Amino acid sequence: MRSTIAAAAGVLALTLAACASAPKEAPTLDVIGDRLFVDATVNGVPVSALLDSAAEVSFADKAWAAANGVATFGAETAKGTGGTAEVEFAEGVAVEALGTRLEGLTIAVLDLSDISNRIVGRKVSFILGREIFDKERLAIDIEGRSIALADRAKAPGGAALALTGERGVETFKARVNGESVNAEFDLGNGGAVLIGRPLAEKLGLLDDPLSLETRQGGGVGGEVERKVVTLKTLEFAGETFAEVEAEVDETENAGEINIGVKLLRKFRITADFGERTIWLDRR
What we know:
Elements: H1 2-21, E1 30-32, E2 35-42, E3 45-51, E4 59-61, H2 62-67, E5 73-80, E6 83-97, E7 100-110, H3 113-120, E8 126-128, H4 131-135, E9 138-141, E10 146-149, E11 159-162, E12 164-166, E13 169-176, E14 179-185, E15 193-196, H5 197-202, E16 214-217, E17 224-236, E18 239-249, E19 257-259, H6 261-264, E20 267-272, E21 277-282
Parallel strand pairs: 3-8, 4-7, 14-19, 15-18
Antiparallel strand pairs: 1-2, 2-3, 2-6, 4-8, 5-6, 6-7, 9-10, 9-20, 11-21, 12-13, 13-14, 13-17, 15-19, 16-17, 17-18, 20-21
């Protein structure tokens, strides 16, 4: 009996030691087309959250918030890439994701059914915005479907790009057709590169508007029709992309260029808004 118990204890000890030494798996990045989802909890309620580095605050779907006891207050008009939408707010919200906890957040609450049905193609109950990028350094490999907290004491690989805030969105320097521009870093953009109308006009891309294809687009605020133009070159992080399709964003809050997942997935990304830097390492 003693030998049997001792043997079992030895096996248990070896098992525990193996578990302790095994590396922790990186949190899964759920990639649906060019949309990124992470597992999260909101006030303790599990939810699959759409990741959006260009969202000034996080968003909860109105019906989901009501069903899960998230109290709202106030009302305001929010501007999105599709126009405007009426939003309410919730305060004192706690969000856990990727091994970190965000407390005391004020989030926006609105009907996300149009985003779910028209853009994403699956239910979106929560959009995790820039708050987590402000707090943590994140290592993101879209093609590798991994995302994890990164150690700030270790230098990331790739080209370091300084960030500058514009209207609540972080931008980095890029070049379009040889022209220096501020490019928005937008992991919530699962569509084409966007170019603001003033820049498109400056570059002569709208000189023959009748010859341009149009395409349906738009995010928060509804669907809009956009002209499609071709950028001869788009340069950033030491890489040059040729003949890049871009849709013209005519909203008044549009940036010069908005770069989303279609191009960013070609890099291993380290993002640290607190340090005002992203690193892009070409795959």
